[in-house]
Fold this sequence. Notes:
The protein is mainly α. The protein has helices at 2-5, 12-19, 27-37, 41-46, 50-64, 73-87, 93-123.
Amino acid sequence: MLATYTTKPFTDRTWANYEQGKRPIPDREFVLMGLVVGATPEDAEAVGRAEAGKLLRQEIERRRAPIVSGVPKETIERLERAVQEINALPFSEKQRNAMVEVLMRKVNLMLDLDRQQVDIMRDGTP
């Protein structure tokens, strides 16, 4: 899921080292990890990461701004709301992350199917 948020993801091993406290987490990586697990800026600030919280807030706001021309604001809000609803469920973080990942796969699958349909209509081949 990290690759969803950056073109320069770090390895699973690095993530594990951060989680286990073997290495301090730089703000950039902390923000990326926060995006993956659905952390809020307040969560970051609550654990003493004020600067990371500020950066996370900026990144969340940046991502809220529609970057795809023609996508209705309502669609973006519905997707965000679905993720928030999942993150509010009384399940483990691992379960919630898996649910968000499934949701994103569904969205991407629909987009892939749409692309295939457009390709068929464009040149007659699937």
